[in-house]
Design goal:
This protein has helices at about 15-20, 60-70, 75-85, 95-100, 105-115, 125-140, 150-175; strands spanning about 45, 120. By secondary structure, the chain is mostly helical. It has two domains: about 1-120, no CATH class; about 125-175. A two-stranded parallel ribbon has the order 1-2. Helix 6 (about 125-140) runs antiparallel to helix 7. The radius of gyration is 21 Å and the shape is globular. It starts with 13 loop residues before the first helix and ends with a helix.
Length: about 180
């Protein structure tokens, strides 16, 4: 952050980045719910999580399960979430978790996660291509090589072609399976 960004959509972890990368900015930022495209919907958000798993073939499955059980104890989960400036994945948290959290805006994120309008990020098989296209568009926009309207139209056309190809591949795979 170079004090040149007015607004950015980020998650709870961003507080950790600000605090550790630029502690002088600790009081120069804030959090608000990102506006919804549908004015009738409040507290719309993506809600993802970190996951611990035991790989098939692990040599120490019992110990791995014990570790996962340990991390999921409320005291340990809250400690881990606080260190990462994240919300707890547990439905109920202690009063101390919210009161003494490293992220001063944790209540905003906790409220969003409890919203009926919180959804997981949709699985998009061509997501890497979408990210590449949007990154390229953003760079062109910053360099004033394209207008927002033209750039977005071009991105839409290219991504629609990729999506159509992907869907055609899926139809072909399904037809071969039956």
């Amino acid at each position: 952050m170079a004090s040149t960004v007015a607004m950015v959509q980020q998650g709870t972890f961003f507080a950790n980045m600000i605090h550790h990368d630029n502690p002088s900015m600790d009081s120069d930022w804030g959090v608000a719910v990102f506006p919804s495209a549908d004015p009738k919907l409040n507290d719309v958000t993506y809600c993802n999580c970190d996951v611990l798993t035991i790989p098939r073939g692990a040599k120490h499955k019992k110990e791995a399960f014990e570790f996962i059980a340990f991390v999921n104890r409320q005291d340990e989960m809250e400690k881990l979430a606080n260190l990462g400036c994240k919300i707890s994945p547990l439905v109920k948290v202690t009063d101390g978790f919210l009161e003494h959290h490293n992220n001063p805006y944790i209540r905003v994120f906790d409220k969003l996660a409890a919203s009926p309008n919180a959804h997981p990020t949709e699985l998009v098989p061509i997501l890497p291509e979408i990210n590449d296209e949007l990154t390229s568009f953003t760079q062109q926009l910053i360099l004033l090589q394209v207008t927002p309207e033209d750039g977005l139209r071009q991105v839409q056309e290219r991504l629609q072609q990729k999506y159509d190809r992907f869907m055609e591949d899926q139809r072909e795979r399904r037809s071969l399976a039956f």
